[in-house]
Amino acid sequence: MPPTLRTVVRRMSLRPVAGIPGHGAAGVWDAAVRWVAVSELADPTPYLEGGELLLTTGMRMEGDQSQYVARLVARGVAGLGFGVGVSHEEVPPALVAAAERAGLPLFEVPRETPFIAVGKAVSELLAAEQYDEISRAFAAQGRLTRAALRPEGMHAVVDRLAKEVGGWAALLDEAGEVRHATRGADTDAVVSELSRLRSEPGGEGATRGGGGGVARGGGGVLPASLALSGPGEHIVVQPLGGGARPRGFFAVGAAQPFSPVTHTVINAAGSLLTLALEQGRTKLEAERRARTAVLELLLAGAKEQARAVLEPLGGRLPEEPLAVLAADPDALEALDQHAFAALLDAGGTATSAGQPKHPLAVALVPDAAAEKTALEADAPVGVSLPCGYAPESLKGALDQARRALDAATGGGAPGKGGGRVVTFGELAGQGLLGLLDRAAAQAFAAALLAPLTAYGSRADLVESLRAYLDSNGHWDAAAQRLGVHRHTLRYRMKRVTELLGRDLDDPGVRAELWFALEATRRRRAATPASPPDSSR
Prior knowledge:
This protein is 45% helix and 16% strand. With 536 residues, the protein is of the alpha+beta class. The strands form 4 sheets. A 5-stranded mixed β-sheet has the order 1-5-4-3-2. Strands 7-6-12-11-10 form a 5-stranded antiparallel β-sheet, with helices on both faces. It has a 5-stranded mixed β-sheet with strand order 14-15-13-16-17.
């Protein structure tokens, strides 16, 4: 706080002559003095900002001074010092009366006290106050730093920050979920405001009290800082993280507005929290790289070396029989909480066969807990059949989990969790077609059957071919199924042979055609029916 008028007057031994009785709760002599100005103008207010201690010798003062005093009061002048012995031997009574009526503090400055001495005194007091503020800020930063070194880490910093600001503090993750908060924290207001900003395209009107810069998060644009003010509460929210996208947020609230020193302390806490967050993320990424190396060693058959790498991390491999889980990389964090999990890159050297087409989150779990662990991921997961640590067994299980994941991601597959968790056993139960890539199978079917689907005759050659194959080539059974004469069916099959250029008596040709027909049927079964045309 700047020095008060009372402090300046006492320090310079000046004599108050008006405004001596208190006005308001604190009294006019407790007004803050932010600077000293000297002016002999009849109206100096255009050159003042408010909060100044104005000094004058009254060179142009004559008659009633009510307007002069009123302008000073309206401008917010802290007080008026009148230098006697130059133009006036004493403070003009009209000025004293006007100051008394308006409640303007007025004091006498003797001739032996130069105005510059008053200016120096105020400057020294301001410098001392600034030094004290800096000292308090450094001391608070030291306490925050010591808190950051405690085992509680970021939570200890948040607790310490709440004490430093005399209010509350809270830590939120990048999704806006509260991870830690001190007593009395108004986290509902913070979460609500962050949610509102995320939902606004472009982040227009992002702050009430503002902040500079922007940080992208979700669908909207978040401000680099956020200030919320209400009756009896002031809140500051800042993002955490060194990148363009926030990795979290912290909020601070207090009943009083934050001073510059408090803002300095808040910024220091933000730096410490960001540093801790980035260090923790760096450590986590290093551990995950080590787990990927462990998985690659297991797939290469180096089980003992894999255990040696994993042991310093405090992890353990599950006992056999085990199951392999495969999921998208976003599920790695959820799986990591319940099992040994690692990220397998598409271009890695983990396996020479069945290399994943894209990065996979891979987890090794006891077979008995496989489905339960997969459901914890809350994402599409593929589960292998039971396997061991033998390289071929583990590689085969990884390929099974990947294929099951493809089915879970593509939809229309049986499984737990609304079809989001698919085991390879369930997939194998669908036959050979269920083990193949769905898109590739459908592309093959469309190309093989294209001559039939493009044929202009009214006869449905595709359905006739399906009935013929389903009846194992028996003409009577197939014709009866279609409700046509067998000679009609023979004509259709002759036309099919001509259009396809293939021999229907060849078992291989029949297998390929059945495969194409079945892939087409499954595609149609998985495609939602089109709604009726409502335009008519």
